[in-house]
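Subject: complex prediction, re-run

Hi both,

The earlier run crashed halfway through, so I resubmitted it with identical inputs.
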Amino acid sequence: MAERVKPEPLTVSLSKEAVDHVRNFSKEAGMSNANLRVGVKGGGCSGLTYVLDIVAEPQENDKVIEDHGMKLFVDKKSYVFLAGTTLEYSGGLNGKGFVFNNPNAKTTCGCGTSFGV
Amino acid sequence: MSQSTTQIMEHQDIYSSLADEYDAITSGAAITNRSSINHLSFRGSDSLDLLNRLSTNDLLSLQTYRAAQTVVTSNKGRIIDILTVLRLPDSLLVMLSSESVQKVTQWVDSYTFSEDVSIENISEKTAMFSIVGPEAPQLVAQITESHISSMNQYSAIPTTVSSIPVILFRSDFIGLPAYDFIVNNSKSDSLWQILVSYDINPAGAKAIDLVRIEQCIPTFNREITEDYNPLEAGFARFISFTKGCYVGQEVVTRLNTYKKVQRSLVALSWKTKDSADTGSKLQLDDQIVGVITSAAWSPREEKYIGLGYVKKKYAVEGAILTANTNSESNTVEIAKIPFMG
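This time it finished cleanly. Structure:
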């Protein structure tokens, strides 16, 4: 009988490149306690758009996740639309910057900044 | 003044006769009870930004006591409803059809995450009467204690009528000069009595709808449904193509840029006098080319007039189509195409 593997709970994760970029950016900006806050808001072409902020502390009722040594804060309503997402970063001239790799997104708009579920 | 007019007229179809009420609206002035329009109060610092992200018009530049019409669109660019958003000093007053209020409220709520926004339906606390017609500006100037000569469409002022506080809003809601008196419900009886003491004819829903159709103004559940996009409905003037993202923006912009709008709103005029059923298909030969969305009997023209959507290539003024119902076939002419999208 095959061993039953308990699935990992869905979470929001950060790629190492994303964490490195936030650290470099916040260091240059002179921010000592830099954490990330991600969320969604209504209004992109496809219905929802991503929000990304560098903050020091979470807001009340935020879910707190830690990845690659960086704290990530997500409000609970946004989390429903973000569970399973990896925040990635690609730099350089051809880089896209921060990219939300979101398995919940069924449609995305042409410029990729908004999604529908 | 008759006894019955001293009490607030319920919103009803006809008060005197359709012909008299129509004449009052189009050649004089009439008063109508618009309390069936719902009022939502949006409070919170993110209200304007949220509505701006969920609808087509540029609301961020809206000044206090100015209003804008804006179309709430689905992510497929279809019409949820059109809203009139009036900016007040400490809130937004959003006016919309009572039939769509629940749908719109749920829609906005589903897109509200961490924003500082609260929505309250204050329709039970407010009443709205409108004086409409070409003589409305002069008449309203006599009634109110403010100068209104500089009021153009979409402007509002806080004022009083015999010491009753009202918000006077120039909506021109059926394409003719129209001033809405928005009043606290506790004062609505008194305000109504003052307004009707100026011997203004009351107009009912039938006459208002007839003028609306003549003026090619779409209304909820007729021309405004999720079957259509704002460009088909002639709402281009309520769309900002430069403000950036809103739900449905990509679809609406593509339709406009690549000239892919499929249908046009048209005004219809019946060549035969029989009857008119909304929902009837419009045919050219054996081909279905459109649908009737509104129809009303015009006492002046002694025939039915209406609105409908017709495929763009067939939307030509003077084109003769047939409207088939179960029992009969009527001949209908495209009278005009009000908005070339």
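The mean pLDDT of chain B is 93.

- K.
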